[in-house]
Amino acid sequence: MPPALALRRTTAPTARPRPAAKSQFESPHRPALAMRASSVEEAGALLARSDSGGGRCRRSASPRPGTLRRQSSSFREDVGRAASETYLVSRLTFTLLQCLGIGYRWMSQLLALTIYAILLMPGFIQVGYYYFFSSQVRRSIVYGDQPRNRLDLYIPEDNSRPCPVVAFVTGGAWIIGYKAWGALLGRRLAERGIIVACIDYRNFPQGTIGDMVSDASQGISFVCNNIAGFGGDPNQIYLMGQSAGAHIAACALMEQAVKESGGHPVSWSVTQIKAYFGLSGGYNIHSLVDHFHERGLHRSLFLSIMEGEESLSRYSPEIVVKTSSAETIGLLPLIVLMHGTEDYSIPSSASQTFVDVLQQAGAQAKLLLYEGKTHTDIFLQDPLRGGRDPLVEDVLSIIHADDAIAQQKVALAPTPRRLVFEWQLKLARQISPF
Asked: Where is the composition biased (Low complexity) (predicted)?
C-alpha cells in the first residue's frame, strides 16, 4: 500500500432519450433490455402520473437571503409523499424482477432486508421522530423540475456564524435510494455544527444512471448557490456519498471537472468543493459487473441501470481519471475514500485502486480503512450503537482541520446515546443482505 494511504483501525421507468452533448459523460445508448419494454414504459407512465400530482406541494427553490424560512411541506404531506414514493418504487421493482426472471434470489434478499430493518426498527423510529418533528430539519426543499428533485437540510441549533456544509448523496443500489436514508448522519453532523443537505434523485426504473448523475449535480448546484440563505458558509462546502451515492457523486464531480476544464458553461464549480468523501463506493463499474451479479444484482438489470455496456467507462470515475487532462485533475478537491475491510457488497479494493489511480494522476487523495467493518457497520450499526463514531470523527477532523474554535466545540458536544440494543445490532449484522 502506498505510504500516503492511511489505515484506521476501529473496534468492534424509462428515462427520456438524452441529446448528444459535448461531455464524455453524455450521449448514452440504451441497451437491449432483458425484459418486456411495455412493462418498463408502463412503470414510467405510472411514476410520471404520480409525480405530476405532487407538484402542488412545491415551494420556491430560491430562499430569501438571511432568513431560515421553513420552505418545507407539512408533516402530513411529507408522510404521504414518502409513502407514495416507497409504494410505487417497490411495486415497480417487483414488476421488473418478474420480467427479468430472477425471483428467488431477490426475494430472499428482500426478506433478509425486511428482517434487518425490523431488528433495527427501535433506532429507526427514534431517528424518524427526529426527522419529522425536529425544528432543525427542513424537509423536501425543491431544487429542480424533475421527479424527486428535492433535498432535506439538517441545520445546527447554533448557527450564529456561517456553518460548514456537507452535500450528501445517499446509497440504495441505484434502485431504493431515498434522501431520508441520510437522517442519522445528518443528525450526527448537525449536532456538531455542520449543515447537511441530503440530496434525493431518481432511482431505476424512474431514471437511469445519467438521470441520477444529472439530479445529483443539480442538487449540488442548488447547495452551492443557495446555502448562504440557510446559514451555510458557501466557502466551506463538502461533497459526500455512500455506496451507490458515492459512485453517483463521484461521477457528478468528474463530469463537472471535465466540463469546466473544457470551457463549457457550468452552474457550479468544482473549486467550490473543499473535499469529497466517498464512503463504501465503487468507482470502476467495468470491474464490478460480475461481482454485483454474484451478489444478486443481475447483470442485465445492472446494465440497464448503467445505460448499456458501452456506457460503463463513461460512468466509471476511475477510468475517467485515467483519460483526463492535467487541467481536469488539477481542478479536483481533496478526495478521501472510506471503506470497511469486511465489506462484501463493494470490496474495499475498489477504493484502494481508485486512490492509487488518483495519486498517479496527480490528485490529492487518501484512503481510510475501517478494520473489520462491513458495508453497513460504518453507516448504520456503529452510529446506532452510540458512543464514539469513527466516521463522523474522521469527517470532522478534515472539515475542522484549521478551525481551533470548532474543534473545541466538537470536543464538548454530548456523546450520542445508544439507540438499539447490542444483541439486535449483532444479529442484524449477521442477517444483513448488504
From this structure: 1-21
- Residue 365, beta-bridge partner list: 335
Whether pLDDT at 35 is above 50: no
User: Above 70 in pLDDT, residue 286?
Assistant: yes
Amino acid identity, position 107: M
CA distance 432 to 115: 8
* Unique residue bearing C-alpha cell 440504495: 172
Catalytic member of 311, 375, 394, 432: 375
Q: Find cell 498517479 and name the residue.
A: 360
SS3 197: strand
Catalytic residue among 243, 304, 324, 351: 243
- Residue 427: all three cell numbers together: 444479529
- Give the CA count within 13 Å in the CB-facing half-sphere of 123: 26
Active site residue 291: no
End-to-end CA distance of the chain: 26
CA 324 – CA 307 distance, rounded (Å):
22
Give the Cα separation of 258 and 125 in Å (integer): 42
Listed residue (181, 195, 14) closest to 95, CA to CA: 14
| 343 labelled catalytic | yes
In the structure, what pLDDT confidence band is assigned to residue 89 with cuts at 50, 70 and 90? low
In whole angstroms, what is the distance from residue 398 CA to residue 211 CA? 31
The answer to whether the CB of 166 falls within 8 A of the CB of 196 is yes
- SS3 letters across 162-204: CEEEEEEECCCCCCCCCHHHHHHHHHHHHCCCCEEEEECCCCC
Q: What's the pLDDT tens digit per position in 197-256?
A: 999 999 998 999 999 999 999 999 999 999 999 999 999 999 999 999 999 999 999 999
Give me the pLDDT at residue 320, please: 96
